[in-house]
Write a structure and sequence with these properties.
With 337 residues, the chain is an alpha+beta fold. 48% of the residues lie in helices and 12% in strands.
Length: 337
C-alpha cells in the first residue's frame, strides 16, 4: 500500500514539472506581410533567395579594390638613349651614329656618305669628347670638348615608332659636301666615288677628268670634236683634231679639219700610230668614195713624217703626174731629227 502512494506522488511531481516547462517555451514569431522571417529578423525577400534584400544592397554597394603592382623605373628611356648617343659619338663611330638620328636627317645621306662627311668636319672642329650633362623630358644636354674648348649644347629627341632618335645639332646641322670639302678638289672626287654621283666631279676642278674616268665614262668623241672646233685659230684647231684622232684611234675628227691637206695628213698620223701605211687608201675611201691619188699621197707623206719609214714613199702612185711625182720625191728627201 505504501509503494502505491510513492508512485502516485512521483507521477504528480512529473506532471507539475511538465506544466511549468510548457509555460516557459518561447512563442513562434509571426511577421506582418509582405515581410518574412529570416533567422530572427522580419524583412523583405523579393527574390526569395533566403537573404534579406537590405543585406544584398549593402553587399552590392561595397566597391571592389583592384590590387596594383607598382613599377619602379631606374633610368628613363631618354636617358638610356642619351648615353648610347654620347658613347657612339665619343668613339667616333659615325656610321653607327647615322642610325641614331631622326629619319628625315638619315635620308639625306647614306651611312657611308655621312661617315665620310662627319669625319671631315670632325677634323675641322678638332672634336675630342662628349658626355651627357642632363635630360629634361625630351631634351638632352651634352657637354662637348672640341678645339680646346668645352661647351654645352641642348637638342631634342623624337619618338619614332617607340624608339628615340636625335634631332641634328652642332656640326651635324651643316653636314654637306660643300662644308666638309671646301676648296679641296680631291675631297669632291672622293665623295663622288663614295656617293656614286658623278655630278660632284664638276666641283673637282682640275681633277674632273680623272674623277669622271673613275666612273668608266668620258666625253663622247663628238663632244671632244666640239671642244677642238671651239678653238678659233685654224692650225691650232687642226692640230687638236689630229691629236684627238690619234688618241681615239678614230679618223672621224680628221674629217672636221676643213682642207684636204689637213684632213688626210691627220689620217696619215692615225695610220702611223697603227704602224700600217696601207690604212691610208682605206681611210681616204671611208666616206664611201675612193678619193683622189693626191689625197692618198697626203696621208702617206704624213705617215712617213711620223715614222721615218721612207720606204713607204713608194706607195705614192705617181701616174706620170707632176704633182704626185714631186710629192714622192719630197717624201724620199724628207729629213728627220
Amino acid at each position: 500500500m505504501e509503494g502505491v502512494r510513492q508512485d502516485v506522488v512521483l507521477f504528480s511531481v512529473l506532471l507539475v514539472l511538465s506544466a511549468l516547462l510548457a509555460g516557459c517555451a518561447p512563442r513562434a514569431m509571426v511577421c506582418a506581410e509582405p515581410n518574412v522571417l529570416i533567422g530572427d529578423t522580419c524583412c523583405l525577400d523579393s527574390d526569395s533567395n533566403g537573404v534579406c534584400d537590405t543585406r544584398e544592397e549593402v553587399t552590392e554597394s561595397v566597391p571592389v579594390i583592384e590590387e596594383r603592382t607598382e613599377v619602379v623605373i631606374e633610368d628613363s628611356d631618354v636617358e638610356k638613349f642619351a648615353g648610347t648617343f654620347a658613347d657612339t659619338w665619343g668613339r667616333k663611330s659615325y656610321t653607327a651614329l647615322h642610325g641614331l638620328f631622326v629619319k628625315d636627317y638619315r635620308m639625306k645621306f647614306s651611312a657611308q656618305e655621312f661617315n665620310f662627311l662627319a669625319r671631315r668636319l670632325d677634323a675641322q672642329e678638332e672634336f675630342k669628347s662628349v658626355s651627357v650633362v642632363g635630360v629634361e623630358q625630351d631634351t638632352i644636354t651634352y657637354r662637348v670638348l672640341a678645339g680646346g674648348k668645352s661647351f654645352t649644347i641642348s637638342s631634342d629627341v623624337d619618338d619614332e615608332s617607340g624608339e628615340y632618335r636625335q634631332e641634328p645639332f652642332y656640326l651635324f646641322t651643316d653636314v654637306s659636301p660643300e662644308t666638309a670639302c671646301g676648296d679641296d678638289e680631291s675631297c669632291y672626287m672622293s665623295f663622288a666615288k663614295i656617293s656614286g654621283d658623278r655630278n660632284y666631279c664638276d666641283k673637282a676642278g682640275s681633277l674632273k677628268p680623272d674623277c669622271v674616268a673613275e666612273f668608266g665614262v668620258s666625253k663622247t668623241i663628238t663632244a671632244k670634236i666640239d671642244d677642238c672646233m671651239s678653238i678659233g685659230e685654224y692650225y691650232g684647231r687642226a692640230d687638236c683634231l689630229a691629236q684627238l684622232a690619234v688618241k681615239e684611234n678614230d679618223i672621224e675628227p680628221c674629217w672636221q679639219a676643213g682642207y684636204d691637206k689637213q684632213i688626210f695628213e691627220c689620217m696619215g698620223e692615225v695610220a702611223a700610230a697603227g704602224e700600217d701605211v696601207d690604212q691610208c687608201p682605206e681611210f681616204v675611201a671611208s666616206k664611201g668614195y675612193p678619193g683622189t691619188h693626191i689625197q692618198t699621197a697626203y696621208c702617206i707623206v704624213a705617215y712617213v713624217r711620223e715614222t721615218a719609214d721612207t720606204d713607204a714613199c713608194a706607195k705614192i702612185d705617181r701616174r706620170n703626174d707632176i704633182i704626185l711625182g714631186s710629192m714622192q720625191e719630197n717624201c724620199y728627201r724628207m729629213i728627220f731629227p
